[in-house]
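To assess whether ligand presence alters the predicted conformation, the chain was also submitted together with zinc ion. Input:
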Amino acid sequence: MIPKKVKEELRVRSIRNGSVIDHITAGNALNVLKILDITGTTKAIVSVAMNVPSKRLPFGRKDIVKIEDRELIPAEVDKIALIAPQATINIIRDYEVVQKNSVVLPNVITHVVRCPNLNCISNSTEPVYSKFSVLNSFMLRCNYCETIIDSDIAAYLI
Ligand code: CTP
Ligand code: ZN
């Protein structure tokens, strides 16, 4: 039996092994799942908490994603920086946090967001993956046609 006090504190249980993506900008948990290619057919055990109170994040709210038995690699983590610049990635082994990293904005992202310019070669039938230079956390520039995305990056996620 878990004591009542502990029950009140547990929102999502601790995991034994895997990754915890914490301090996600509220409203972006599902975008994080999308970036990690986690869909409804996943076999992984995934917990999602939305709008959890947080002292650090804007509006005092954050989202959390816990993925069991999967350790995220840096290339996956860096994509998360685009939509959740304050996220921390915790790697858990045998219930202990063995690694805690902030996300780092990548310089270039390939095949993560689609170009808003419908005439861009990355939107054609040519076998060309979209490629954007990351100018800062809210501005991307297409490497092919130079179109800028400067708002709602999440809306363009592939
Ligand atoms: N966590 C988990 N399972 C574990 C250990 C930790 O799900 N076995 C989760 C915690 O719930 C928390 C995150 O991983 O969301 C980071 O854990 P921890 O570093 O212990 O928490 P804090 O000190 O609050 O982290 P921070 O300093 O990054 O805010
Ligand atoms: Zn383009």
